[in-house]
Amino acid sequence: MQAKAISRTTKEAQKRFFVAFNDLISRKKIEGLTQFCREYNLHKPKYVRLRQAYMESKATDYRHVDMDAFIFIVKDYDVSAEWLLTGRGEMYE
User: What are 27-62's pLDDT values in tens digits?
Assistant: First the structure.
């Protein structure tokens, strides 16, 4: 059985996740991927590969950012849920 293709909408939201993540690092709100994954019990190799895939147009076997990661970045770092999911509005609340 072949895996379902990721929709354009999902790809765009996931890319915005990493745009916000990188911005949070540049603002020194997040130390980096290791700290974020450790703090929220996320699989670091998956996020390293996904970040490369979205920011550098590289292929990866991993397909999706976990919904938990979206929730953490909105709840704990004031990233706008509307911007993250739809691209409308400002990045931060």
Answer: 999 999 999 999 999 999 999 999 988 888 776 777
pLDDT tens digits along 71-82: 999 999 999 999
0.70 exceeded by the pTM? Answer: yes
Q: Which tokens hold the place of 25?
A: 């690092």
CA–CA separation, 40 vs 75, rounded Å?
12
Looking at residue 92, the DSSP 8-state letter turns out to be: B
**Max alpha carbon distance in the chain (Å)?**
43
Find where tokens 């550098």 sit: 56
Half-sphere exposure of 18 (CA within 13 A, CB side): 19
- Residue ranges with strand state E in the chain: none
Q: How many residues in the chain?
A: 93
